[in-house]
Amino acid sequence: MGNRASDGRTAVERRSERELVVTRTFNGPVRLVFDAWTKPELFKLWWAPKSSGVPLLSCEMDVRTGGGYRITFGRDASNSMAFFGKYIEVSPPSRLVWTNDERNDGAVTTVTFKEEDGRTLLVLQEVYPSKEALDQSFVGMEDAMPEQFGQLDELLITLGAGV
Q: Considering its fold, how many domains does the chain have in total?
């Protein structure tokens, strides 16, 4: 019961050998939550887990079907790691689908946003090409996603105060 997404916690679960699903309800309207995922100036305020100590160097997002993104982490340009891909589907404010092209065996990520009484139910689903590819990503995500989503919740409180 304590791992339900409706109590401000992030539920991270494997649904199959190749599928990972992360669920959380955020205290904010769907418009704000969608903006936090699609506006670079907001995205970079919450995406990098603070505990990792690795800052987000750059965040470029062309959020439209067929557009691309590139997110770079690291201390400086010579010591950095980039995540990049293409948006397959952008349906504001309810759905985003993108590829993760930094690895040959990257997942396809789908995020859905559904408003319920001023709160937003977010479901993130990643489908990997193989069990091994998911095994490789799962350990890091199990720790990182709850922290990232907690940071997003904090950002939404700040944004909500400014509305």
A: 1
CA atoms within 13 A on the CB side of 111: 19
Residues 126, 142: contact at Cβ < 8 Å?
A: no
pLDDT in tens, 31-44: 999 999 999 999 99
Q: Is 16 helix (H, G, I), strand (E, B) or coil?
A: coil
Q: Which helix or strand (DSSP H or E) is residue 4 part of?
A: none
Answer yes or no: pTM beyond 0.85. yes
Q: Give residue 69's region: left, alpha or beta (phi > 0; psi -120 to 50).
A: beta
| Edge-to-edge order in the sheet of strand 95-99 | 11-14, 19-26, 119-127, 108-116, 95-99, 79-91, 68-76, 56-61
Residue with tokens 């109590």: 7
The range of the structural domain enclosing residue 74 comes to 5-161
Domain CATH for 47: 3.30.530.20
